[in-house]
Design brief:
Elements: E1 4-11, H1 19-32, E2 38-40, H2 58-74, E3 81-90, E4 93-102, E5 105-111, E6 136-138, E7 141-144, H3 154-162, E8 167-171, H4 180-196, E9 200-203, E10 206-209, E11 212-215, E12 219-221, E13 227-230, E14 237-248, E15 251-256, H5 269-285, E16 291-294, H6 299-312, E17 317-321, H7 329-342, E18 345-348, H8 352-366, H9 373-394, E19 397-398, H10 404-409, H11 430-442, H12 458-462, H13 482-494, H14 499-504, H15 509-521, H16 523-527
Parallel strand pairs: 1-2, 2-3, 7-8, 8-9, 16-17, 16-19, 17-18
Antiparallel strand pairs: 1-14, 3-4, 4-5, 6-7, 9-12, 10-11, 12-13, 14-15
Helix pairs in contact: 1-2, 5-6, 6-7, 6-11, 8-9
């Protein structure tokens, strides 16, 4: 029994499948906080989240059970107890759960009740729901342990409250989406706390995992909805919260002393940080020495270069300019200016010899045919082959630079500018690219390793976008203005609206119908595109899963 509890919230990165690294990270936090009563780690901390089909390997389940037992034995030293998220088998069923490790043993386990099965989540593929959980008694406090999705519905918290829970500790693996931090606090956590009259500590993980990224931003809210603690976003953080028991009528209640209140990144810094962290963890966790990318003098490659420098530092970023006869002097100057501002290596590899060689090689079979999109795509594919050759020869991962607007309508060359290992802009519409470029030219992100000043010549942002694959080419020759295109795409992709609905909002019917057609026929390209970080609610791959072959049209 105690009138005071010191609960340490460990907002950590995770390595999916690397149990040894995750155990080492947990033990390091415990060793650094010997005066804590309880240390809490994020959802599935032991194996990493999300494990996807890796969880189907029996060897992983067995190793997780073994490592959890070892962690439990560590607590026999009388030091802090631990709340560790892991996987558990009960009666032949696999559960996503949390274990209280105390006094050298696994003192209690609780399983996730609400299994999310939408968007990026497909937990019903792997787990069985546990029963409605009961509170766990720990040093005189009744702890309710809802797990992530459990607090997005009222039933679990109400059930725990009815059984006497006094503090909610909710471990999470909640991926970043635009405005998700506001939704977590105001739309979910405060509602559960106010509804039950019980304070809630919300602990999230941080870091990138393939196409999703976790922003951290953990917090504690009181039973009246007040924000007691706000941990930072986009970085690991360990905070010890102090809880005291105070009288309340004939009973008592636990309150958390006011603690840190970090300001969270606002738009568009949050988007930029998501792209930086996702690329950083993808490159580092897959053990690439650095990245290489084509720097064309355009805005997409320029902001990708800036993201890469902020993620990895300038010494690990290699930019390559690959001019053709259609490349303007302006683009050459802007690419050089961008590289100088970022402090990265820039090499120039002209593609004219390869273009001419392909022309000569194909001339006999192209006889009688006029130059068209084919010749434009050959240039793009030559650039893709060149960059992949550098990646193969020297080891850096190729960064792909196409944005969501282009990927949506197929304005990208498969096996050309779509080549690469990762795309930071995959879920960023062109209007978002403009916004984050303007922001980065005036600000340095909180997690950035790049320069304080501008990262690209302003002309890159203001000049009309062009692929420069034919004389005087502009994107607007093939596509509507990007503000129009993106508004239509948001309707079609993010909101699943019909052509009629989008036309009713003031858009031209022929344009909307054309964009819907392009969106549908480009699906096969997107299936072959590299992974890229999820930013919104409907990214390609994890969220929006359309058949390549189908005949349905809305207009």
């Amino acid at each position: 029994m105690s009138d005071t509890l010191r609960i340490t919230l460990a907002q950590l990165n995770q390595s999916v499948g690397d149990l040894a690294a995750n155990v080492a990270a947990m033990l390091a936090v415990r060793e650094s906080n010997p005066d804590s009563d309880l240390i809490v780690y994020p959802e599935l901390m032991l194996i990493g989240y999300p494990p996807e089909d890796l969880i189907m390997k029996p060897a992983l389940i067995e190793r997780a059970a073994s490592e959890l037992e070892k962690l439990a034995r560590v607590t026999a030293d009388g030091g802090p107890a631990m709340l560790v998220g892991s996987v558990f088998i009960r009666d032949g069923d696999l559960h996503n759960g949390v274990a209280l490790l105390e006094g050298g043993r696994i003192a209690a386990t609780r399983f996730k009740y609400e299994l999310p099965n939408y968007g990026t989540f497909d937990e019903k593929r792997y787990f069985m729901p546990g029963p409605l959980p009961e509170p766990v008694l720990f040093k005189g406090a009744m702890l309710g342990l809802p797990i992530c999705e459990d607090i997005w519905h009222p039933d679990v918290c109400r059930h725990l409250a009815e059984l006497g829970a006094e503090i909610f500790i909710c471990i999470n693996g909640s991926p970043y989406e635009i405005d998700k931090d506001v939704l977590r606090i105001d739309g979910v956590a405060k509602r559960r706390a106010i509804d039950t009259g019980i304070p809630l500590a919300y602990l999230n993980r941080v870091g990138g995992q393939d196409e999703i990224v976790f922003d951290g931003a953990s917090f504690v809210v009181g039973p009246e909805g007040a924000l007691w603690v706000q941990m930072p976003d986009w970085e690991e953080s360990v905070v010890t919260t102090v809880w005291t028991q105070t009288a309340r009528g004939s009973g008592s209640r636990w309150r958390c002393e006011a603690g840190e209140e970090h300001e969270l990144a606002e738009h568009p810094e949050d988007i930029y940080c998501a792209m930086v962290m996702a690329l950083r963890d993808y490159v580092n966790k897959n053990r690439f020495p650095g990245v290489v990318l084509g720097l064309s003098g355009g805005i997409d490659s320029a902001i990708c270069a800036a993201i890469a420098v902020d993620a990895l530092g300038p010494d690990r970023v290699w930019c390559v300019m690959m001019p053709s006869r259609y490349t303007s002097q302006e683009s050459l100057e802007d690419a050089e200016g961008c590289a100088n501002m970022l402090g990265v290596r820039l090499d120039t590899v002209p593609i004219a010899p390869a273009v001419d060689a392909f022309g000569d090689m194909l001339a006999p079979v192209f006889t009688g045919k006029q130059p068209d999109l084919t010749e434009e795509n050959i240039q793009s594919r030559i650039r893709g082959v060149t960059l992949m050759a550098l990646s193969n020869k020297f080891g850096p991962m190729l960064v792909t630079t196409g944005n969501k607007s282009e990927m949506s309508v197929g304005y990208a060359t498969i096996y050309g500018d779509m080549n690469g290992g990762y795309n930071p802009l995959k879920d960023a519409y062109k209007t978002t690219v403009f916004a984050v470029s303007e922001w980065r030219n005036a600000h340095r992100p909180k997690i950035g390793l790049g320069p304080d000043g501008p990262v690209m010549p302003q002309r890159i942002i203001t000049k009309p976008p062009s692929a420069e694959l034919r004389p005087d080419q502009k994107d607007s020759d093939s596509l509507p203005p990007y503000d129009v295109l993106d508004a239509i795409l948001v309707g079609l992709v993010e909101n699943e609206k019909s052509v009629d609905q989008i036309v009713a909002e003031g858009h031209d019917r022929a344009t909307v119908s054309r964009i819907e057609r392009l969106l549908n026929i480009a699906e096969y390209k997107r299936r072959q595109a590299p992974p890229g970080v999820k930013l919104g609610a409907r990214n390609y791959g994890r969220d929006r899963r359309y058949p390549i072959t189908h005949g349905f049209r809305t207009g």
